[in-house]
Design brief:
single chain, disordered N terminus, 38 strands, hydrolase
Amino acid sequence: MSAGIALITASTAAVGGPAMAAERPGGTVLPWGSATATWTSTSPAPGVEVRTASISVPQAHPVWTVTVQAPAVNRMTGAAAWAELGDARWAAKSVSQLAAAGIEAHVDRVPWPAFTDTPHGIEGSRVRVGGLPTQADAKKQAEAVTAAGLHPLVEWTGYDVDQAPDRESVHVGIVDPTVFHGSVVADHGDAVAGRSTTSAQARAAGSVLAVNAGFFITSDADGVQGTQAGLGVYGGVLDAQSSGGRAALILQDGGRHSQVANLTSRATVRDGASSYSINGTNRVPGKIRDCGRPGVSPTEQPRQDFTCTSADDLVEFTSHYGTDLPTGVDAQAVLDGRGRVVDADTVGGKVPTGGEVLQGIGTAATWLKAHAVVGRRLTVDERVRDSAGRTVPLTGRTGIVSAGPILLRGGKVTIDAATEGVVDPADLSFGYAWAEQRQPRTLAGTDARGRLILVTVDGRQPGVSEGATLEEAARLMRGLGAVNALNLDGGGSTAMAINGTVVNRPSDATGERAVGDTVQIIP
């Protein structure tokens, strides 16, 4: 924790019995069974409080193990894949094959989590070998499993939802808009097309509290690094289009009013009576990270960490883009601040200050070439709507970050994991570890008093902090008093900064990860 932040409170709650749960002062129930939790609290600004919990579960005894992976097929690509779960017939055959090699294995029947849009009952069978004290021991056992003709995976059982973790580290930021008189903003750093750490963005913004926010592109093969893989609005400007109707955090009036909702975006360019849909903003035409847009292939539904394609694609670039424009396109039009076409002959370059650029491929390029005539005015219309069809006003003090899935609605656990594309009941090779095992998580929600709750749960660190499943994340947010909540980007991106200094423990071996956007609390 950064220097100059005073310790306000410290307390410990110990709760025994497997059916009970640890509580922090105020009665918030944690989702990790019988536990001991030590809470400390700091206040980096009036109306802003950060509570930190160090949680231990004495009854938990996770070990290293070897999971036998089942052969599978990626439903989107048809490529061979591996899954941690298979059917009962495959499990029985695998156990017999291991026994013939002198290796004893056991089978666990793994139930579906309490998602709202997936089947109930047993999801699949998991085959495992041994409970070993060290990772090195597990790797050695995995070699024997490979020699038996199977495909092993070394795992820490503390990441399993069917066993309590031994350690958790949780940071909770609470912003009370009736007391805090600054701004809560969505921030993408210097440019949409760029990555910087949460703490670097915090220092640049002068914030007292910050967390990482939405999903973003991390590889040049999927587009431009740092650009959002989902809806992003910064200072009222729609800088990234939605991925289906995924969850989003809306910050209206500089964060005086925060809301969690499923949102979609739509944009259209018009030339008189003729129009064409703009299917993306600030991304490479033809590449749609996380899918979820009309007319893209192989799916129009959201699909986490998957890049869809489109041969006919019109993309808008705003002045927030911040880097060279793509060059592999069929047509480009540069518009000034009034929407008048000032250049329709060149490709590439940069977005002019106060202007915008349209790029098209396929039929979108055909439309653009016919209508983007120098001197002609084109009108771009953009709308963001919630799941009820209501328009979300975009003013200069509106920010939106998005990820998914929704965790809570009206105080009830409501995880639409399949709808938001983070699991696929028809493809068990997709999303199991991401959604159903413990991972580092960043979460956001609002409580009945209108306060914003920002949470990080460290993970991927055996003996230090295991993380949370999506279901555990939802119950944690409900226990903290949230009535509506969503999952933000997690994994190595999970970070919380106070006064520009990271206070949690990011999971990447190289330290804090550079991200696409953040939520910043600025006094």
